[in-house]
Amino acid sequence: MTHDYKKLGFMCGLEIHQRLATKEKLFCNCDASISDDRKVLSITRRQRAVAGELGEVDASTAFESKKGRFFIYNLFKRSSCLVDSDEEPPHSLNPEALEAALVISASLNAGVPDEIEVMRKSVVDGSDPGAFQRTMLVGFSGFIVADGKKIPVPSVFLEEESGGIVSSTQESVEYNLDRFAVPLIEIDTDPVIENPEQAKGVALQIGLMLRLTGMAQRGIGSIRQDVNVSIKGGARVEIKGFQELDVMDKIIESEVTRQLSLIKIRDELRARKAKVGKPTDVTSIFNGTKAKILSQQVAANGVVLGIRLHGFKGLVGREIATDMRLGTEISNYARMAGVKGIIHSDEDLDSYGIAGHELAQLSKALELGSNDAFILVAEERAKTERAAHLAAQRAEMAIEGVPTETRGVDSKRLGTRFLRPMPGGSRMYPETDVLPVSAKHLIKKVQSEKVDIYSSRRQLHEQIGNKQLAEQMLWSKELQLYRVVISKTKASPAVVASILLDKFRELSRNGVRTELISNETMIHVFSLYSKGRITKAGIGEILSGAPKGIEAVDMLIKEKGLGRISGAELKKLVQGFEGKDKASLMREIMLKHKYNVDGEELNMLIK
Amino acid sequence: MYSKEAESVLRSKGISVGEKIQLERGKESFEGILMPRPDTGDQGILVIKLSNGYNIGLDFKSVSSIKRVGSSAETFSFPKGKTHVRKGLKAVKLLYTGGTIGSKVDYATGGVYMLTKPEELLHEVPELADIANVEVEHLMSVASEDMTYTEWQTMARKAAGAFKSGAEGVVITHGTDTMHFSSAALSFMLQSLPGPVVLTGAQRSSDRGSSDAFMNLICSTHIAAHSGIAEVGTCMHSSSSDDYCAFIRGTKVRKLHTSARDAFRPVNGAPLAKVNAEGNIHHMGAYNKSDLGRKAVLKDEYEPKVALLYMYPNSDPTLINHYIDRGYKGIIVAATGLGHMPLSTSHKEYDWLQGLKDAVASDMVVGITSQCLFGRVSGTVYRYGRMMTDAGAIYCEDMTPETAYVKLGWLLGNHGRKEAEKLLATNLVGEITPRTEAEWRDEA
Q1: Domain end: B282, B298, B314, which one?
Q2: DSSP states of A527-538 as a string?
Q3: Contact A386, A333 (CB under 8 A)
Q4: 10 Å Cβ neighbour count for A277?
Q5: Quick check: A305 and A385 in contact, CB under 8 A?
Q6: What pLDDT digit, counting tens, does each position of B70-100 carry?
Q7: Is A605 within a domain?
Q8: ipTM (interface predicted TM)
Q9: Are residues B243 and B170 part of one domain?
Q10: Are A599 and A567 spatial neighbours (Cβ–Cβ below 8 Å)?
Q11: What's the pTM value of the predicted model, to 2 decimals?
Q12: In this model, does residue A571 exceed pLDDT 70?
C-alpha cells in the first residue's frame, strides 16, 4: 500500500455488471446466448439530445450530442430483431431473467419491491439504438460480507446490455446488436470500501455469489466492474471497464495518485494566481514555419489557435500518474472536438521544429510572462475553435482541482484515462410500453433458491477432496461450468476441476479461446471420459482443438485417433511388448499412446 | 388512480400525487415522490420515485407508516424556441394536429403531454429555422385514430388559407395511424395547389434521442420550401436508417407496418421524391409543378355516409342490409384478389350477389378495390367479376381501398350521386395511374 487511505479520506464503491445466461433477451425473443451469428443487415442512425427533466440537457447528453456522430448498427439473424433496432415495441419482460435477478437480490440479502417498474435511462453514446436503456430496480437495502466486513448493497438492477462496439471514428461509431439487450444485472455497493485491496476482495466475493447462482454468463466481457473513487479534496471519478480483477487494486492506486497530483497542482496554481486566457488566432506567425505539424494545417487552410496559461509554467508537463501529465488531460478534452491533439510549452518545442523567432512572436501575441505556459491547437477552423474552447475549459478545471469524470481502465499503463464528463442524474423516466410486473408471487420461491456461499464451499471441498483444488475451483470463473458438468456427467470432480483449472490455463496461454467451448460440448467430452471412451490426456488434446459442438468433438477423436485403448485391447497391446522390462514397457507404450492409454490402468495390468 | 382504501389513507395524511413522502416497511425506510398509479395492475401498489430516479412499487398494505415530507416538484413546462423571420428564406406554414410527433414525456412524472405552443416545436427542432421561415399554428390535438372528415375539412381550409396569406408550402404534423386517409382527403379537397402540402408524423415518440420525428420534420420542411412539387403527400422515413425520407403522393400511400420508421410506402407507384436532412431533393417521377401565382381551389364538402367493407371467407352478406337500412350513399368493398366477393352457388347464405344488387338499387354507389393493395382490379377476367359488374359495381382500377373510400365520400359530397358514379374510376388528382411501370417493386 503506497498511500495511507484512511488519512486521504478514500471513498470507493463498486458497480458490478454481470450478463445473465438466459435463453432469450430481456424484452424480446431473440437468442441471448452469443455465438457466431450471421450478420444480415446494417442500418445507420443519428441521435440527438432531448430535453431532460427540467428542460435541461444534462452534461453527458450535451457532450455526446456535441460530437455529432452517426451510428451504424449491425443486425444478426438469430440474435437481433426489430425490437433491438428500435422498430418494434418491447415484448413483455423475460420471466427467466426476472427470476434470476430476484434470486441474486435475495442472495445479497436485499428487499424486493412488490411490483417492478421498468424505467428508461437515456443513453447518448449510441450504444443503444433507442437512445435509452430499459432498466429496473429489483433489490434494495442488501449487503454482502467480504473479509469480515459488511458492505451495504443499496440497489440491485436488472437492465439491458448495451450494444457491442466494433469501431469508432470521429464521424461514426459501429455497434453489433447480437449481444445488445441481453439481461444484465447491476449490483451497486455503498462507497464504504477502505482501500484498493478491499475493493478487489468485494468484487471477487460478488463474482463468486453470481457464479453460484448458476445464471452468470461465461466468457469475455460477461462481467464488468466499474469503480467509483474519490479522496478528500478530489472528486468522484467513475472508472469503467475492469474485466480482470488482477490489476484492479493497482489501477485504483494509480487513480488516487493522479488525484493527489492534481490537488497539488491546484494548490500551486492558486498560489500563483493562475488564469486561463482566451483562444487567440496566431496563424500568421506560422506562415512558412518549419514545424511540420503546423505547416501542414496552415497549408490546408487551417488555423493555429493559442491560449495563454497564466502561471502554469512547468505544471502542464508535470507527471500526475505513470505516463500521464496535466497536458495529457488537456489534450484529451481537446480531442473530443476531433483534433489529433495539442502542443504545449512544457514540451520540447525544438523537436516539433518550432523556431526561436516564432516563439518570440507567439510570446508577444499571447502576452506571455515568465511564469506562463501556452497551448497551441491547429486544424480546420470550426474544429480548432471547439477544441481550443474545450482545452481552455480543462485548464480552468485544473485551478479548481479534480474534475468529476468517467474514466476508462488503461491496462497498459495500469492507470485510468479520460473518457467523458460524468453523466448527470436527470435521465430516468418510466417505460410506458410495458406494464409494471408483480413480483409478489416469486418472493417465496427466490428465498428458497438463494445462494449460501458457506454451504456451497463446504460441499465443494467434500466433492473434490483436495482442499487446495477445491478453493481454486470455488474462486474460478469456471465454477458454473464445473457445477453443470458434475450434475450432468459421472466424471470425477477432481478430474473435472483439474481440467477446468490447470488445462484451461495452459490452453489459454497457448492461445486457445476456452470461453468459446460451449457447456454442451464440455458435458459431451466429460461424459465420453466417464464412460471410458477417452483418457484424461485425451480430453486435453480434444480441447486444444477448441471444438465447436458435439460433432466437432467426435470428429477430433476420429481424426486424431484419440479413442481410449483399454481392457482386452490394452492387454493385446501389452502382449506385443513381451520380454521387455516393466519400466521400458511402460515408457514405450505411453510414448506411443499417451492420449489413448490410461497410465493407471496400464500400471495395474503389468504390476 | 389508487384503490379507494389507499386513496383515503393518503388523503387523511394530506398526501397528493407528486409530493415527497416517507414510507416505513419493517426495518426498511423509503423516501421519494408519490407517482400517479398506472391504469393497469394492482391499484393498491404505491409507486414511488426514489432519489436515484428509479420507480418501485410497494404494496400499500405492507407499509407500516407513511407521511408527507415535502411539496410537489415544480410543474413541468416546455422550453420554448424563438421564432424570428430571416430574409431570403421561404415562408412555410406548419399546422400541428396532434399525434406522437408532438407529444413529450414529463421526465419527473412520466406523464405524456401534447405540445400546445408553436415555440415548443421549434425548440425541439431548431434546424427548421435555417430551412425556412416556419410559422407554426396549433390547429388541434387529435389522435389520428379519432380523426373524422370534419378534421380533414379544417386542415384543408387552413392549408388553403395559408397559401392565400403567402406561404409557399405547408407542413401538417399528424398521427400516423390514419395519415394516409387524411392525405387522400386533402388531395381531393385541395386542388390546383400553388405549392406542396406535406403530411408528416413520427413512429417513435420524440422523448427519445432516436426518434424519427426530428428528421421527418426537417425533410418535410425541405420539401415544403424547396421541392417545387405542388401536390399533397406524406414525408416519412424511406428505410430503417436515418438517411432519406420519401415524399409520396397522398392518394398512393399507405401505412404498411405497425411500428417501423419506414411504415409509409407507395402503393402502385414510386415516391414523388426522396429527400435527406441536408436538403438534397431527388425527384423521382412526374408531378405538378409549384406556381405561386395559382390559387388553391378548395372543394371541402364531404358525405360521411360511405362505408368500407372487407370481404373474407364466411362473411355474412346480410351485413350490407345494415348500410341500406341506414341510408348509406356508398360502399367501397375491399374485395379479394382481382376484386371478388363471395358469390357462392352451393352455400346460398354466403352469397353477396343479391345484397350487392339491393345496395345499387337503393341508390348506393358501390366501388370495388382489392385487399391485395398492390395491383389493379378487374371485373372482366373471372365470372364473378363480370356478375358484379353487371350488378352495378364499379371497379376502381389501382386505387387502395382507403383512397377509394375517401374519394367516394368526397365525390358524393361535392358532385352528387350520378357524377360520383362516373368519376369514381376516373383519375382526378393522380389517385389512378393508367399504367404501372415494370419496376413497381423497386420503390427505391
Answers
A1: B298
A2: HHHHTTSS-HHH
A3: no
A4: 18
A5: yes
A6: 876 655 455 555 566 788 899 999 999 987 7
A7: no
A8: 0.91
A9: yes
A10: no
A11: 0.87
A12: yes
What pLDDT sits at residue B81? 58
Domain count, chain B: 3
For A129, which residue in chain B has the nearest alpha carbon? B210
The answer to the question of residue A446 being in a domain is no
- Over residues A418-471, the pLDDT tens digits come to 988 876 655 788 888 898 999 999 989 999 999 988 899 999 999 999 999 999
Helix A567-575 vs helix A582-592: crossing angle, to nearest 10: 120
**Which range marks the domain in which residue A509 is found?**
452-564
CB atoms B47 and A435 under 8 Å: no
For the segment A57-74, the average pLDDT, to the nearest whole number, is: 66
CA atoms B201, B202, B208, B210: torsion sign: negative
Range of the domain at B336: 306-423
Do B149 and B258 reside in the same domain of the chain?
yes
Nearest to A461, CA basis, from A453, A469, A451, A449:
A469
What's residue B220's pLDDT?
98
A123-146 confidence digits (pLDDT tens): 878 999 999 999 999 999 999 998
Asked if A1 contacts A68 with a C-beta cutoff of 8 angstroms, the reply is: no
**Distance (Å) from the C-alpha of residue B210 to the closest C-alpha of chain A?**
5
Residues B341 and B387 in one domain: yes
Same-domain pairing of B342 and B233? no
Clarify whether residues A155 and A9 are in a common domain: yes
The residues facing A230 across adjacent strands are: A11
- Per residue in B319-369, pLDDT (tens digit) is 999 999 999 999 999 999 999 999 987 899 999 999 999 999 999 999 999
H helix or E strand, kind and range, residue B103 = strand B103-105
CB atoms within 10 A of CB A33: 18
User: Does residue A545 lie within any of the structural domains?
Assistant: yes
d(CA A386, CA A392): 10
Q: B79 and A55: CB-CB below 8 Å?
A: yes
Instruction: Tell me how crowded residue A68 is: count the other CB atoms within 10 A of its CB.
Output: 11
Residue bearing cell 410486473: A437
Report the residue of B2, B210, B237, B259 to disrupt the A interface, i.e. the one with the largest count of A CBs within 10 Å.
Answer: B210
Q: Are residues A479 and A548 in the same domain?
A: yes
Q: Which of B112, B83, B135, B104 is nearest to B214 (CA)?
A: B104
Q: Is the four-CA dihedral A117, B17, A130, B265 of positive or negative sign? A: positive
Residue A397: CA count within 13 A, CB half-sphere: 20
| A572 within some domain | no
Query: Residue A241 CB: number of other CB atoms within 10 A?
Result: 16
Give Cα separations from A197 to A15, B231, B325 (angstroms). Answer: 16, 71, 85
Domain count, chain A: 3
Query: Which residue is associated with the grid cell 458497480?
Result: A15
Task: Answer yes or no: do A365 and A298 share one domain.
Answer: yes
3-state secondary structure of B82: coil
DSSP A350-391: HHHT--HHHHHHHHHHTT--TT-EEEEEEESHHHHHHHHHHH
Q: Which helix (H) or strand (E) holds B154?
A: helix B149-164
Tell me how far CA of residue B45 lies from CA of A219, A436, A444, B13, in angstroms.
Answer: 39, 10, 19, 17
Q: How far is A27 from chain B (nearest CA, A)?
A: 16
**Chain B residue with minimum CA distance to A44:** B241
Nearest CA in chain A to B108: A53
Check whether residue B102 and residue B50 sit in a common domain.
no
Please measure the distance between the N-terminal and C-terminal CA atoms of chain A and give it in whole angstroms. 56
For B36-71, write each residue's pLDDT tens digit.
Answer: 887 777 889 999 989 888 999 999 999 999 999 987
Q: Is residue B437 part of a domain?
A: no
The reply to whether residue B210 touches residue A49, judged by beta carbons under 8 angstroms, is: no
- Same domain for A91 and A220, yes or no, is yes
Please list every residue in chain A whose beta carbon sits closer than 8 Å to the beta carbon of residue B40.
435-436
**Contact present, A439 and B42 (Cβ < 8 Å):** no
Judge if B167 and B278 occupy the same domain. Answer: yes
Among residues B338, B331, B330, the alpha carbon closest in space to that of B398 is found at B338
Q: Could you give phi then psi for residue B170, rounded to 5 degrees?
A: -130, 135
